[in-house]
Amino acid sequence: MTKSTPVAETPRSAIFRVEQNGRNFAALKIIKPIAAKEEGCGARLLQWYEGNGAATVFDMHGDTVFMEWLDGGPLGDPVRAGKDDEGTIAIATVVAGLHRSRPDAPEGLEDLRDRFQTLFDADVRTWPHTARDLYARASGIALKLFDRPSARIPLHGDLHHDNILSSDRGWLAIDPKGVLGDPAYDVANVFINPERGEKIASDPRRIAARADILSQRLGYNRKRILGWAAAHAALSACWDLEDGKAIIGQLACLPHLLSAYDLA
User: Residues of the signal sequence (predicted)?
Assistant: First the structure.
């Protein structure tokens, strides 16, 4: 006996909770045509993780993904409640699972350099007058990072506190984008999150503590982590400006991320 209940719908997908025999739950995600390429790539990456640091994919068929149901809250909740160090330690544990060496990486992952093209192509005049030097510095750091080769591995590409959910197996990532590039980039998005947590993300002491924990636990270069964090904050701002959204959150963090990078 199988029963399915709709739980979420976005322009990109619809998610159902599937109940089997009245006790086992699973998630059924149906990807909409508009998002087929990116979401399909992310779903193949999720399958490749084999449940290590991420939700398990049981089966995939075309635009339908059958996967583990995670009923816990997002990691953003304890962080917004003041437990930022614990949150960062949890992120490091998740990333260590995602970045484990595995054979046969999925095809079609977006190259990290291509992902940053929006930043390099941006018209600086779309940025507030007082923030244009921030854009210039962050772009320069991004170019420097690309000029200094690093390992190239499959990356989640959108890892932040509210894309990590609690489960009886611990904290697990969902919704990867599927990117290929520098491992240190995968923690960049952490530094401008969680949502509704700008006060935490823009606090220089929190930035330093996050960089310390992630660098120590993952073995990634601390300056490189902060460089990607600043570059990604500027890239995120460019995406939002393209969509006509305000960039208050990014601008609250970016000066402090640039300072932390300079000091690293």
Answer: none
227, amino acid identity: G
Closest CA to 238 of 114, 118, 139: 118
pLDDT the model gives residue 60:
87
Active site residues: 158
Q: Of 244, 22, 234, 55, nearest to 135 (Cα)?
A: 234
Q: What is the DSSP string of 89-104?
A: HHHHHHHHHHTS--SS
CATH class for the region spanning 2-68:
alpha beta
Which residues in the chain come in under a pLDDT of 50? none
Give the separation between CA 70 and CA 169, rounded to whole angstroms: 9
d(CA 205, CA 156): 26
Spatial distance between the Cα atoms of 120 and 67, rounded to a whole number of angstroms: 37
Q: Does CATH place domain 76-263 in 1.10.260.40?
A: no
Q: 193 by DSSP, 3-state: which?
A: coil
- State the Cα–Cα distance between residues 113 and 136, nearest whole angstrom: 17
Strand partners, 154: 180
Where exactly are the structural domains of the chain?
2-68, 76-263
CA distance 56 to 43: 10
DSSP assigned state of 170: E
What are residue 57's DSSP bridge partners?
67
Map residue 58 onto helix, strand or coil. Answer: strand
Q: How does pLDDT run across 173-199, given as a tens digit for each residue?
A: 999 999 999 999 999 999 999 999 999
Preceding omega of 194 cis (within 30 degrees of 0) = yes
pTM of the model: 0.93
Residue 209: Cβ within 10 Å count: 14
